[in-house]
Prior knowledge:
With about 800 residues, the protein is an alpha/beta fold. Strand 28 (about 795-800) and strand 29 form a beta hairpin. Its EC number is 3.2.1.21. It is an enzyme of class 3 (hydrolase).
Amino acid sequence: MRNSLVLALSGLVLAPAVSAQAYDSGDRDREDFSWVQPKNTTILGPYGHVPPVYPSPNATGVGGWEDALQKARDFVAQLTLEEKADMVTGQPGPCVGNIVAIPRLGFNGICLHDGPLAIRVADYASVFMAGVSAASTWDREILYQRGLAMGREFKAKGAHVALSPVCGPLGRSAYSGRNWEGFSPDPYLTGVAMEETILGHQDAGVQATPKHFIGNEQEIMRNPTWKTNGTVGEKVQEAISSNIDDRTMHELYLWPFANAIHARAASVMCSYQRLNGTYACENSKAVNGLLKEELGFQGYVMSDWGSTHSGVSSIEGGLDMNMPGGLGGYGMNWKAGSFFGGNITRAVNNGTVPVERVDDMIIRIMTPYYWLGQDKDFPGIDPSTGDLNTFSPRSTWVREFNMTGERSVDVRGDHGALIRKHGAAATILLKNENKTLPLKAPKSIAVFGNDAGQITEGFYNQDEYEFGTLVAGGGSGTGRLTYLVDPLTAINARAAQDGSLVQQWLNNTLIAKTDVRTLWLPTPPDVCLVFLKTWAEEAADRASLHVDYDGDDVVDSVARYCSNTVVVTHSSGINVMPWANHPNVTAIIAAHFPGQESGNSLVDVLYGDVDPSGRLPYTIAHNASDYNAPIVTDIQTDGFYDWQSWFDEKLEIDYRYFDANNISVLYEFGFGLSYSTFELGEINVENVAGSNITSRPEHLPVQPGGNPALWETLYNVSIPVTNTGDVDGTTVAQLYITLPDSAPEGTPVRQLRGFDKLSLAAGQTGVANFELMRRDLSYWDVNAQDWVIPKGEFVLSVGFSSRDLPVTTTLTPVKGCTKRKL
Ligand code: NOJ
């Protein structure tokens, strides 16, 4: 893993000094070959021959931004060319990204900050649960409330733009280092999570930035490599190219971005790597074609930090804002100049770039700014952010910044209580033999593992650390904790109420090689709680799916002698669990990265104050070798374009793959236990679209999110759910569809298309509701270039996980094909 990190970072050291190279449109020439067909396939998709998509479409404000767009136009009309260049080019300053002020127009600039679980470069801010935990809640309301609370903290610190949320990576590979920042490899679940999070952020008055667009499914090789030659670098190898066919693009990777745009996201961050041969940020098919034309995106596309690889090509390809603005590794070599900046004025003056294109870039930037009312009473930047920002320290600033906010303002409010509640709702109970949990006033508790206690290396961790519980990974998606309730502290506090004895051993090396009986002499504890963790970070991919620090050996060592061993994981994502079926492992909890109240959230579930209602947002296989779609690591050749990642598995990622190949798994997608039990009643399907459902959607004028006909509800499905246990509980009813046989080859066996979380008192019955929209019932037809509802009979399956689907019914939206066997 460390080697991978070095490899990835080495590509960031130097970039070419600005020169004619900044205007090299060579990448554009390559675009004819960019939408290549996956090798060894016979799929006839348009990507072999789709032409480049130019010009970049102008924003119209359609979908509710019309008034704001007019204000943006009026603003642009007053700008000089130099000011226009400033508006689209980042500068060093107090925030992670900075657009400078134009005081004569009363414009205070734009402050952009990471990230998806906290405002990262800030003091006195909260650390919320990570995306993988948020997805585990399967709870729309929580997803929204989390997004809202985060948005309020960004705004109170003076950040106009939150670089959040993440749906790229989607989670093609279990190993990707940033899966935890995003939600789930299922595009439907992630799509809902994106939409709710963005609504939350933007209802707080902060711009959301869904990222990274698109195909950013691994960390290593995400940047080109450079040979150092004094201060000027010579490019040695281009970044990896994610080669994705058209159908896979639409049905998996673009899907949640469509939700994001539908939710009116202000901005989209394009990714580092190449996509079908061309860098994502200058990929006109992706940015102009998919995002701005097909999805009707009205906001602006900003580059990831240093992912701009050209000037004119990027501008023509649809990039609207260059971040952080400078050239060089991560764009941090501020002195080296910029692909944008002064080059924009030159390009406009010499006629290379029409000023109308630059105007549209700024209109796209300023429209959401006005739409969210950021021109009125927006809090000034907290000066402490400038001190914390190692990315562009004060010594690099060349412009003035209005840091008029209160210094070290405490923006946490009552979010601690919210984070505790959310963390508990994200906790997934995977195994619970003999009703081990909830704990019932045990006389003696033994706590094991280096994940149980307090962090020993400070509250802002960019590197893996041995001792201390994990609530976030490393990189730009992390957060700066102000406090952390670790599991051991919370257990001690709760155990004191029962007078329980709590003893702990936190050194994994010691536990793994010790006869644990010597640790707890003379009497065995009633329960042994083993805490395990798995780190992941940006710019590196995971080397293994096992837990870190010999965690498997720790479980073996404890379970050998403790007949009531409860394992808790705090992991960035998928782990294999070779000890899952050990008879002494009586309960397993996957708690992921639950945020600053981690211990309290866990204790609430361990003791039954909260029913475990988290459900797996991915599949846990029996063996690591069962997973497909590995990270590309094995390219030994050093040709300029040799780093290629072929998404040959197409739609078969995560449960789609295991279902298509009938592979048995340990815990399936959607699985999780409650302390109660639930049963389903009779399913009811109501057609709300009338009898004339057509295969192809009506072609309505595009709105944000694409053709509005795709978002129309065609069916309302409902089903009674009864809590049949003797305790109150919470469950997640899930609906999956199977498309008719007339759908093209490669169509997944089952796909999630609805979920509803219900809290029910013992004996109570509630109703789970699912809305099926046109897109939910369609596949992407590569020839028609449209979403198509296949003719014939669909199967709807409802249950409590992707492999526990006791209720099925059929549906035939479009007649004309054979019946399908249930
Ligand atoms: C690079 C990361 O990929 C992106 O997610 C982040 O927002 C920027 N750096 C800024 O820190």
